Amino acid sequence: MKRLLGQIRPTWSHLFRFLGALGLALVVWAYVTGNQNPLIATTFKELVLEVRGLREELVLTDAQGLPLTSLGTVSLILRVPQEEHLTAGDLHPYVNLAQIAEAGVYQLAVQLDAPRTVRSWRADPTTVTVHIERRAQRIFPIEVVLVGQPGLPYVVGTPRVDPAQALVQGPESRVQLVAGIQARVDLGGRVASLQDAPVQPIAVDAAGKKVAGVQVVPAEVAVDVPISLQGGHLAVSVIPRTSGYPAPGYYIRSLRVVPDTVTIFSGDPNVLARVRFLETMPVSVEGIQRDFTTTVSLDLPANVSLIQSPSQVTVIVDVEAIEPVLRIAIPVRLTGLLEPLQATWEPRWLSVVLRAPLELLERLSLSDLWAVVDIAGLDAGEYDLPATFSVPPEVEVTPEGPVTVHVVIVRPATPTPTPTPTRTPFPTPTPTPSPTPSETPLPTETPTPGPSPTPTRLPSPSPTP
């Protein structure tokens, strides 16, 4: 065999034949594959262009230095087999920033993360311009800026902010524009102090304008602004005064007054010391059955005047019907018990509060009220089940305790038939003959001789004359 193989020598003719056969096989394979599953062109538009490999000390920005989270969108044209069904979620176009270590402007090619069945693809655009800056941060004291003025005669004290400093971070070109951090508070018309008011601090430039593209940490601070009255003035509450009573079956649910605080002035400090609140002139609520709003004057004491406060206030009266309440225990019943199961339950009654119009409560009976426990489909066992209430639609039910019912379902035992006892006959007794007694002769009594009795002589009868 070795001698035979040694006689075979490859020639150029053999090589050409082999290459020709291989090429023909590839052509046939491509032809068959193309006919069975041909390649088609598929277009995907507006796919988000991802950013990968960006270092932590760098930040992606636009041409103005504002930070970006993405580079926009691209379109893709793919050549895939006809039977391949791709979605936008299978395709991830991206730019790789792993090789970028310095700030600058770069032109990067769009790359694609896609399934292997994608034979070829083309992106539009094929490259993107990327602006990279270094990430910077600075610490600034927080300045409280008061906007507007409180109402006269109020004055503002020294504001306080907590914390007193904040951190600004972002692209280096934007952080360089920051000149300070402000916490702005609007005091326009305020008559009460601010305490721990939440305020969002902002980074500003030298002109006091907000700098965009930077982040302030913390995002919220607490500001205190004391506001107090000048001498001779006093802020007091306004209390509405009413006269009369609502219609029978109704009550006043709430009374509100707008504004509820006014500022008064008096040249006599003793007068102000005696004023704790102001009342309105009487508001009649006689016979009312619905809400109403009215305007009424304030009842000012002597030598007292109003400062920057209206002479009349608005009184809002909310009226509501008295809703009868009935406390009652209603029976519990089970529904859906399967045959031949049997059930017991506890409790048998549930305490509830019923609310409804009085005329309806007067017509109710226990047959209208049920606490229902559905046990449909349940087999033998113990269950803690919720109860639902079956009442007329106009009745509102409020349980006074738990609405869980303990149910015990049992399957009755099948009676076992008692066998009929078989009567066993008693044996008939065989009479045993009694022995015949033999007659025994009685012994003959032999008289024993004794002494002879002495004869007694009877008296002779007396003769009769």
Strand-helix topology:
Elements: H1 2-6, H2 12-36, E1 39-48, E2 50-52, E3 58-61, E4 73-81, E5 92-96, E6 104-109, E7 111-113, E8 120-124, E9 127-147, E10 154-156, E11 160-162, E12 165-171, H3 172-175, E13 180-186, E14 194-199, E15 202-204, E16 215-217, E17 221-225, E18 227-229, E19 233-239, E20 242-243, E21 250-258, E22 261-265, H4 269-274, E23 277-280, E24 283-284, E25 292-299, E26 305-306, E27 312-321, E28 325-335, E29 342-346, E30 349-355, H5 358-363, E31 370-374, E32 381-386, E33 388-390, E34 396-399, E35 404-410
Parallel strand pairs: 2-5, 9-13, 19-23, 20-24, 28-31
Antiparallel strand pairs: 1-4, 3-9, 4-8, 5-7, 6-9, 9-12, 10-18, 11-17, 12-16, 13-15, 14-17, 19-22, 21-27, 22-26, 23-25, 25-27, 28-30, 29-35, 30-34, 31-33, 32-35
Cα(first) to Cα(last) distance is 205 Å
Q: What is the overall pLDDT average?
A: 83
Gross morphology: flat
**Total beta strands:** 35
